[in-house]
Amino acid sequence: MSNLNKLDFTALEVSGRNYLKWVQDVKLHLTAKNLRPAIEEATDKPVGEAEKATAMIFIRRHIHDALQTEYLAEEDPRALWVALADRFDHQKDIFLPEARHDWQHLRFQDFKSVNEYNSEVCRIRSLLKFCNETLTEEDLLEKTYSTFSASNIVLQQQYRAQKFTKFSDLISVLLLAEKQNQLLMKNHQARPTGATDYDDGTRAMTGGSRNAFVELPACVIMVGIWVKDMTDGRKLDVMSLVSEDQHED
Fold first, then answer.
1. Range 30-56 average pLDDT
2. Cα–Cα distance for residue pair 57/29, rounded to 1 Å
3. Fewest C-beta atoms under 10 Å: which of 21, 39, 81, 116?
4. SS3 12
């Protein structure tokens, strides 16, 4: 649509596919503008003509051009609201089987990231709620636990043992674990195992020889280390030990 950049949210499509979300958007915006009574049943406090006109302009601007033409003769926002509801409210009956199917086949192990899984859960949960079906926190937690990958059975048991009561708390822990794993992999891939930025310094300390510390783990950095000779209690400088080893060679 040509005026898409001027809209507050996506306009109602001709097919009504986005009707449920559109209804919520319209209600929220009209409430913020103090125009919500214009689309509700008559109350003791009548709605002024100016408010009705403003609400009508807002609604018409957020429906497809074809719908604008079809309901061109409609001048009352309440009447237009009811007409659109009669036409598209059956979308609940259409979306409900789809939402149930998506929920039944949802598996945590099928998603590449925790965020993708969480987004899909929120989408399905919202759709079911629109269709007057509610997923409890226990439902969401059990769905997540029971669809871990088979290779993560122990990990799943550990999360279950934490006895989370809120799905959002479990997701927060999973997101933190995912981020830590990503940082671990980045550190691992930064350079091959055994490689270190301290090679030049080590060679300088050992007189150019790299064999002096060959038995030490790559992550160990020896700076000013003193070792104790357990035979006679003497303290020896580690550099002296290295020097002696080289003379023996």
1. 89
2. 13
3. 116
4. strand
